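Case study.
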Amino acid sequence: MKYVGKKIITMCLTLILVSFLVFLCFTVIPGDPALAKLGTEATPERVEALRKEMGLDRPFMVRYGDWLYSFVKGDMGESYSYGLPVKEMLADKVPITVTMSVMSILIIVAVSIPLGLYTAKHEGSVTDRVIYALNQVVMAVPAFFAGILITLLFGIVLKLFTPGGYISYNQSVAGFLGYMIFPSIAIALPKISMTVKLLRSGLIGEKKLDYTRTAYSRGNNTKGVLYKHVLKNAMLPIITFLGMTFTDIIAGSIIVEQVFGIPGMGRILLTSISNRDYPVVMAIIVCLAAAVIIINGLVDLVYQWIDPRIRLEGES
Amino acid sequence: MKRKKNFNLIIGTVLTGLMLLLIVTGLFFLPYDPETMDIELKFAGMSPAHPFGCDNYGRDVFTRVMVGARTTLLVALGTVGIGAGAGILIGAFTGYFGGWVDEVVMRIIDALFAFPSILLALVVISLLGNGKLGVISLLLGSGKYQVILALGIAFIPSFARVVRSEYLKQREMDYVKNARIMGCGHLRIMFVHILPNIMPVLIPTVMIGFNNAVLSEAGMSYLGIGVQPPDASLGRMLSEAQTYLFSQPSYALFPGLTIVLLVLGFSLLADGLEER
Amino acid sequence: MKKKHLKALLMIVLSLALTLTACSGKRQGESTESQITIGIPQDVEDSLDPHKAVAAGTEEVFFNMFEGLVKPDSDGNLNPAVASDYKVSEDEKIYTFTLREGVKFHDGSLVTVEDVKYSIERCADTSEGGPLVAAFSNIVSVNATDDKTIEIVLAEPDADFLASMDTAIIPASNTTPESVAIGTGPYKFVSHAPQESFVMEKFDEYWGEAAHIDKVTLKVCANTDSIVMNLNGGSIDMFSRLTATQVSQLNNNFEVLEGTMNLVQALYLNNGVEPFNNEKVRQALCYAIDKQYILDMTSDGHGTPVGTSMFPAFGKYYMPELADYYTKDVEKAKALLKEAGYPEGFSFTIKVPSNYTPHIETTQVIAEELKAINVDAKIELIEWETWLSDVYSGRKFEGTVIGLDASSLTASSMLLRFNSDSSKNFINYSNPEYDAAYARAVGTTNQEERTAAFKECQQILTETAANVYIQDMAEFVAINKKYAGYEFYPLYVQDYSKLYIVGEE
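After joint prediction, the assembly is written out as follows.
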């Protein structure tokens, strides 16, 4: 329990560090939110007045402290460009990104585990080799290009969905989920390849270990051994990998959202960065970072739970 | 038992060799100038004179693929160089010594890990663009390859993590304790004794990192923060070509295929080496 | 066994996702209302307050929701709108407007002189560091002389003042204009989901010719490369500001209309830094570049070459002859460089906003053409906001390729910025002769003298090669053949009220 407590404290510290870094970034990169909002019609006086209204004339540490204080209180501020509360804006976008991430993870798990088991069982067979080759090729395709190819194939040729025809979940949940399948596939594809590869080599490695041979000698059939003993042990690296994948998915969603025209967190993040809309950027990054850190923390816990041999990081 | 042929190694070597041949040849000889435009050749199709056709400015795509592959390779090598170099240093020190420095550095690494690489890239690019880090821009050729530094920094955390966890394991091993007793210095133990021992873990990480760097370069170019025009890189060519995907699919095909072959060759090579 | 588990897991998570999203789900009712989905390249990244909105993308949408006392039409004329009539005093200092009878706001209330007074005074207010509408700094007072007449008194005569009277009239009773949009336009606001969609509905009590289509949904297509797919795939019915390349890839469901963007695309040079403070160097660059070649290379020859800071839509002010002032002549360019003291050429950097592909393409061709005179132009792509702060506001650049448009159809909106003391003079152009000609133009009430003086300004810009002028870019509008009625405006606006469904009209 002490371990969990310590973990939570470090998580919070990391989050604060992330938020500070983001805040710091914006003082470094050129571009002024007031100027960005006023555009080419800006006069120096109006820019000055708007800067004051946005509170940008205060020193850096004061602004950061102020932001942190209100954030902890649950107030994320107001978007500079839209004049809307950030919380409201994000509440609309979170379900989109969450759905996409969950769908991708589901696709990865649903496809790669059977494939991994199959290839490990039939190591060296023709199917194994074909799957291996396919995997290698899929991993070599850049994410946005895969997105375009999927759009071409499923959207233009097979007409399974309308390219760019994103349907909001407010309009139709079924339509929304139907549209999200394809971007999720685009995200999942390269990860499937890696998971299959990892699982296969993990399973093959475990197969050669003593306990597996013992299990066989006790008269178990192949299937039983594979499922009961080997899979459980080979799952360890997969869980770590899936944890890391989640981070990748969140980062990767920025590009995939762009290709498929999905107005999710990635799109908002991208435009807010270029609009220098700090309140929105800060809120999104801190939320994403929180998700990443929490998932990594959970992975660590699950890891220990599965394999008690692993020494607790905090005790080393 | 007859030794099975290592197909991965063979195919990987052949592909990587071909790519290197293409790139090295490009250093000494190019069929055309990669930047000269010719309106007559705008979107010229494939022909013996222009085997991959021409792009929207009438530039020879084959020439640009040769130059672009070189840029991409350079970006990937640079990225892995920076990422692995700094990652090994950070990972070695934190893993070996532990303590509060380790705690602090690992929190920063965690934070970087959770940080969108695009924002990081923007920061690096605008820093270099403003000439605030003039020396580095000079080294990298007037800010042409800012993307290397941006990606390099983004790659540090993953390397640092892997290296750190290995050092954590290794420092408890007998050979390290023996070395301590024999009076070896910390630096010597870290880099002469331990480093060779973590190579089996480090090499695949570097190989995967290399492939990720190639793919990330393409992604950055897609978002418009990669290599600057008129320089060619495979990612930049691919993202420029997607505008013409319907009218001129071959323009996207060749840079795309080259990326796939480059990454494929390298990962097969990596697998082949592991198998051996 | 395991497979079953997986299936169950899949079902659980799917249903979870379903319930999660269903919470805020609304069923879309079946309806017979006519509607159109239009793609827009950037979101309406502003609040709903028309006076504070500045982004061009916002203004073109708000044109359909808000109106001023006068309103521009597609020929560039200013027609009475919320006012039914107006009078200008002899000395051009007093503008008198008569309120149109029975004009209603979207909330159903009638427009009163108080609302007009409120709207104009709000924009003339200087408490936020200057008036919201620049021309309003000239206003002395706004008086409601009776319940349908409003009189605006100016300090100085201003012949162009009427053009700024398209400022939106909003109700004085609306205390939160940034989140509640109430105007008098043919469309009223329904909803806005950031980066997703902006929905408007026909206003049934509109005073003028009512809109034809009941519901207009604007859909943000941030990724320019997928616009063609979206159009061909049918997810949007119309998109304006397409490039020639995109048009060539459309299927035959679309009618393509060609207009101009109404802006001046040029290689703007920082006249305040070496070597561009030398007129000969600037002229050399002009001689090194073939405008038509750029057009042929980047847009299959579409677009109108221009030679000064003015575009054809300006009619009487525009001087087409200046477009051919410099014709490509590499030898002459080299000779000029030699005279200027750069016999070996030089190198400089062109900064280009990374989000405007047409400008990037033009820059690449320019850089290539400049190689012929040994000028090495490096290209640096920067973000639009960096461009605003570094190039436009900070004036830290050597050259930049950009298109400058007019905020209103007045010659001064294009030419004011080249005055040596203008805060918008980001190219640091400084020429007493120009300042004098400009002062003469705005100082007179005589139409002919004005036109002549503005033409002189343009002539000076061309002769001194203030910038390397390129073109007014071609604009293509693709509209699904189910719809028709699109009209080009000489301003950066989109008029959705004229659109109709073919066969229903």
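Observations recorded in class. Chain C has a mean pLDDT of 86. Chain C touches chain A through 64 residues (CB under 8 Å). We will return to this complex in the next lecture.
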